[in-house]
Design a protein that fits this description.
This protein is an alpha+beta fold. It contains 16 helices and seven strands. The protein has a four-stranded antiparallel sheet, with helices on one face. Helix 14 crosses helix 16. The radius of gyration is 32 Å and the shape is elongated. The protein starts with 5 loop residues before the first helix and ends in a 15-residue tail after the last helix.
Amino acid sequence: MGKLTAAAVRTLGPGRHHDGDCLLLEVRESGSRSWLARVRHNGKRRDIGLGSAKTISLARARERCREVRLAIAEGRDPLTLWRPSPPMARLFRDVALEFVEQREISGKSRQQALSRLQAYAFPQLGKLQIQSVDADVIAEALRPIWLTKPQTAIRTRDLILRTLRYARPDGALLETTLARAISDRLPPQPRNKNFAAMPYQEVPAFQAKLREKGTMGALALRFAILTAARSGEVRGATWGEIDLAEAVWTIPAERMKMKRPHRVPLSPEAVAVLRAAAAMPNASKKADGLVFPGASGKALSDMTLTKILRDQKAPFTVHGFRSSFRDWAAEQTAMPGEIAEAALAHAVPNAVEAAYRRTTFFDKRRELMAAWGGFLSGEGGAEVVPLKKGRG
């Protein structure tokens, strides 16, 4: 039990008054009153200020004194106990909770984020300083669920990366390289069976089979493959979006997954498909008319394109042809990866890079799509720049 009372703290005269357990009340001639912790640290006696008695109560001063003694016993510097933590020295748990509170808008989203953090991130990362959270420790945190719960693992990884981007001064620059480094330390995740992709080497032969069918559904599927577009974007395409003279298809923002307009350069092969669609008996002549209407005049269903694959006994999906295109671009051309990603209308994952990138690489994408069309036609109608052997 301390020697001082709350009344004594208010009335004692000038001098240093001992409460016990290293706590002192210092009263100056001016009447100002402050708390001190007298301790031995690194072999020397030190008086550590605990705050003004006007704002720090006797009970709180005793608590702070105990915190000072505990810090010394644990080898920590007691002078840093009540200083604001530098951004890189804050604990991951504290920053993550702050981030979720500030950035997660809906209640459901907030609860999901907190659940993932509590279950999969905090056990390994919670007590680490932000500066100590690197690819190795993140990979170890995710390893138990990386293969068994792949989607949960990806969402948890993204939440960790978003927290680091929020907390670290260099977070936006670090995010993309850190994501790749994490993946390098973990085994490949199983492919999503819903998006099974045909090996790109087999796609030209499949396109040749589609050319033999001559139905509106086959034309739509050929166009989807040639443009590496999503099924819904193709099935909802209207003639008003198509500029045959310039060989450009402009998809409005409201029909894009990322809610941004997307200009697709059309290869000669893609333009040929459009001309074939325009010559079909049920083709529309209006600007708002569908490019690939069904027999009823309405948009084709997704199952129409899927049925074509099933009829050909192809165990793949329409969406998987986007992966076929991406694999071909990576393995058979020297185009930088960001060109292929732009062709797929994927978002730029790095916030800083996205802010500075004003180009959509349209001219480069025209070269790439022309090469893809030539590859699919089997006629070599466009130059495909091969990767040199030994290039890393």
